Structure prediction request, 214 residues.
Amino acid sequence: MAAAAEFFVSGGPFMYPIALVSVFGIAIIVERFIFLFFKYNINANQFMAQIQKLVMANNIDRAIKLCNAAPSAALPKVIKAGLTRANKGEIEIANAIEEASLEVIPNITKRTPTLQAVSNLATMLGLLGTIMGLIEAFDAVAKAPPDQKTTMLTAAIAIAMNTTGFGLMVAIPTIAAYVFLNNTSKKIIDEIDQYSVRLENLLVSRLHGNAGEN
Prediction:
């Protein structure tokens, strides 16, 4: 702990904005992780297998109740929109599914791209701190009294190296979290696209009297 404190203090004033950026990034990562894994996500294969059975059995009301059992999850919201138009025409079913998808998908993707900006900002602040440290180092070499030159040069190099190091320590995990969360978002969206089309085809077949043949 003492070494970490010494590392932070010797890094100079640019360590504080980098620390602030890191707190912002951590807040986004935690919020997105909670929403993507505990709110929007669901076992899509298992859920749709149950929905398909109920639709083929012409039990639309029970299928809607199954969607209501996971009110926060993204896929059930889209599926429910289609099921509520199950007895309408093909165009109404498609429009309901599309409208629900357009409402849900922005909630899945929001804030995750901000992590790229957080990573870049941490890196740039670290590089700016490095440049300022090097400027101080050159000043120490050129202007400092001989008896203070070593101390001032050491302090300036510490600023240069520590800010770069701290910036990368924030940037690398942030960009890794971005890749992970972005892939998770894409998986949920792909499931919505895949299973909403499957539901639409199933409901259209049902309207034509062919649901039992699928």
In short: The chain has eight helices and no strands. The radius of gyration is 27 Å. The mean pLDDT is 89.
